[in-house]
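anyone seen this seq b4? input:
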Amino acid sequence: MEIVFLRASRAAAFACLCLLLTGCLSMKSYVDTALPVVSKGELVRPANPQPAQVLFEFRTKGNANAKATDQLRGRVLASIVESQMFGTLNAAPDGDSPAVLKVVIDNVPITDNAAAKGFGTGLTFGLAGSIVTDGYVCEATYQRAGKTTSTTVKHALHTTIGNHSGVKGVPAMQTQDALNQVIDQLVLNALKNLDAQSAFAGE
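predicted toks r here
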């Protein structure tokens, strides 16, 4: 009986994987609305934007995630460039930079046992959908002229799997597009907060 059960479990897992890969089991993402939406027009460009070195790291549950860091570095840099708060930006180590902006984004799962919920959805072939929520905590630190200014911004991303209702009043998005929006808003909100603390004063 034990061998049969193991084989059955493996078969069910394989069926779930096949549904995900073939697109039969749909996934839709929704960007949480609690964090205010900041546009680059809301940021006050310094009179004399300074060059800065940008350090970025992505973490998963507090642990460094090198692959995700490489994949999202370009998006983070693009958001910083879009803000127009700086002059030239250097993502490589540079001890001569007059300022350093460090951005750390940590992916902290909020939904308990998210993997099991997704697996259960697969077993029912999407008839019983599920929803999982990922939290994102962004810690941004700006150092210049011996002064250090820091801020923390939190965001969330909800994803439905299979036949589950979406988040009321929030448009459904492809997961990658939703994640890009989360990254953009984390960065822009962090820069707005740093500016409110006069981090860029005098520039």
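Strands lie at 27-31, 52-60, 63-64, 89-90, 99-109, 130-144, 147-161. The mean pLDDT is 80. kinda curious what u guys think
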